[in-house]
Amino acid sequence: MNGPFKYSYCCAALLSVFALSPAFAADEQPGVIQTASGIDLIPYLNTGFKYDDNIASTKTFKTDSWILGITPGLQGQLLDGNNEYTFQTNLDYGNFLDSSDDNFLDFNLGGAADVELNQSNKFNLNANYDAGHEERGSGLFEGNGDLQNEPATFDSYNVGGFYEYGAQTTPARVQVNANYYDKEFTNFETITIYRNYSDTDYGASFYYDSGASVSWVFDASVVNTDYQIADLSGDRDSTSTFYRVGVDWEATAATAGSIRIGNQEKDFDNASRDDFSGLSWDASITWSPLTYSALTFNTGNSAKDPNGAGNYIESTTYGVSWDHGWNDFVSTNLSYNQTDDDYNGVDRQDELKVFSLSASYVTTRWLTLVAGVDVTDSWSSDENFGFDRNVYYINAQMTL
Fold first, then answer.
1. Euclidean distance between CA atoms 385 and 139, whole angstroms
2. Cβ count near 114 (within 10 Å)
3. From residue 262, how far is each of 59, 216, 224 by CA, in Å?
4. Angstrom distance (rounded) from CA 298 to CA 335
5. How far is it, in rounded angstroms, from Cα 83 to Cα 115?
6. Whole-number pLDDT of residue 213
7. Nearest by Cα to 62 from 379, 390, 372
8. What pTM did the predictor assign?
9. Euclidean distance between the first and final Cα of the chain, in Å?
10. Which of 346, 356, 357 lies closest to 385 in space, CA to CA?
11. Is residue 69 within 8 Å of residue 88, measured between CB atoms?
């Protein structure tokens, strides 16, 4: 597809979003099916087209395609006093018009229970199952998307929850939590078998409210990562320990946010691998100078496992996004996110930049149109990696 037509189509799609005239009250909510048992059901359907000029995220020999996406889903909610029970499920189908080998059908099912025993005792339980995929050229096959004949597929399971003691009216609260995550690939077994793994993490957080919607926080957590089979470079099993302090605050003086900073220790069972010890942080701050406009800043740093060679990656993220409501029906989002990865065990540094722009238009109570573009610039000191990618899309989000 030539460039002028591609950009013209994207502009036309954006203009068509703004050209429609709504004929409903802006505060109307999506339709809900209320059952006799008290469960509220919200069915939805998202569908759209997008154009991707580099579907396998390759540096050379790029393949482009138009993609039809269809996502039907169902959400459910049951309110029982102060307790809330929710579930959600959906299918996600992608049809690549110029590359049928990339077609996918994902499935997701999840649920959660938030139970308040009394004002000082509450707990949460949640579970999720994904039958998903990784796009060609991503994850384990990063830099080798042109060698894949289909996406890598996987099953993942996540079970977790927390228990919290302390009333909201008292300054101090304690929360203990635990979570188990398991991921297993279902194709390319001779390669992916070495990246089937599970994470078991547990921890505790202490909150102290100092007034004015501000909570000081101290948390500690441990993550045990276990791989089913060691790859040729040796055992990758490890234990990561985090100790961090921080602060949470709700909207005060037009800002809200959460900050955590502290230390991470990542220790490998394999003595031949370098361990990591260093600063770790997570921060997200939202500034809302107007009720209909918000700027969000976020950053983080931690050591994580690589998809390919190396012991670990020290990954630092930065991001900023601007959400603005132009009126009751039209809103836009402009964002920039950057990830800097420094590898240990191999000579490699990566820099990933993603620019995104989208516009949403609520045409009727049950239909919202979203059009946008994502521009990705990936650079690596290793000439085998790095790519450019542009994705243009228009979606329709429908409810009852």
1. 12
2. 15
3. 37, 14, 19
4. 11
5. 5
6. 84
7. 390
8. 0.89
9. 36
10. 346
11. no
